[in-house]
Amino acid sequence: AKSAWKKAVFKRLCTNRALREAACFHALTQREAWCIREFGLKNPIAILPNAVTPLPSSEARDSTDREKIVVFMGRMHPIKGLDILIEAWRCLAEEFADWRLALVGPDEDGYLATLESQVQNAGLQGRVSFPGGLYGSDKDALLASSDLFVLPSRSEGMSVALLEAMSAGLPVVITKGCNFPAAKDSRAGLVVDSGVEALTTGLERMLKMPNAQRAEMGDHAASLVRDSYTWDSVARDTLEVYRWVLGRREAPPCVWTD
């Protein structure tokens, strides 16, 4: 069924004149660019990621006399892999009694009730919280008081929540489905397979780290965002793409032409 669907989409794409004659496609990640190629479209592709306004790092994480927080931010939706995360947390909760898991975000299609039931059945009441959607200064304050960001998604385009958390100096544990290998390449966190065992292993490794080592990873995370994922940086690359499309310069490095 999936193969038939892909063939149908491919046929439609290839017969769509607007797509075939587009001067350039915009992809958020290399994975999106490869998907465009897999559908048979040969147009140039500009890889222009999402951008964020960096948040200030917090000195509060230096304190050892407090409960530590692992935070997730995003929709309460099955694609985010929260069922996997809760099961991984069940495996770790007893050993890491001074850590708490905060699952932050709005409910979608009533999935929150399913997650709350899973937490209750796992006996994790008091160890897992659901603050709901947090925005503005409330969101910034929670990131500033957290110690680790986790995104166990089965599939992501490019997560703004991940970029914001990294900009605030949080090390990360994410799955390969997040399509953000730069987290590992920049030594800002761990990229693991999607699944309870792999996520449990990755979280355990991070929770056992000395505070100073996690802080160093958080510094790498913040530097990565400042260097490559700010509005100024992405806007500059976008302008270069448009200048190229208008014939005013050669293709910038962010454009795939092969």
Keywords:
258 residues; alpha/beta; six-stranded parallel sheet; three-stranded mixed sheet; globular
Instruction: State the helicity in percent bands.
Output: 40-55%
Q: What characterizes the major β-sheet?
A: 6 strands, parallel
What ranges have pLDDT less than 50 throughout 5 or more consecutive residues?
A: none
Strand order of the largest sheet: 5-4-3-6-7-8
- The sequence of SSEs as H and E is HHEHEEHEHEHEHEHEHHHE
Give the terminus-to-terminus CA distance: 30 Å
How would you portray this structure in words?
The chain is of the alpha/beta class and 258 residues long. The chain has eleven helices and nine strands. Helix 4 (82-92) packs across helix 9 (196-208) and helix 7 (160-167) crosses helix 10 (211-228). The radius of gyration is 20 Å and the shape is globular.
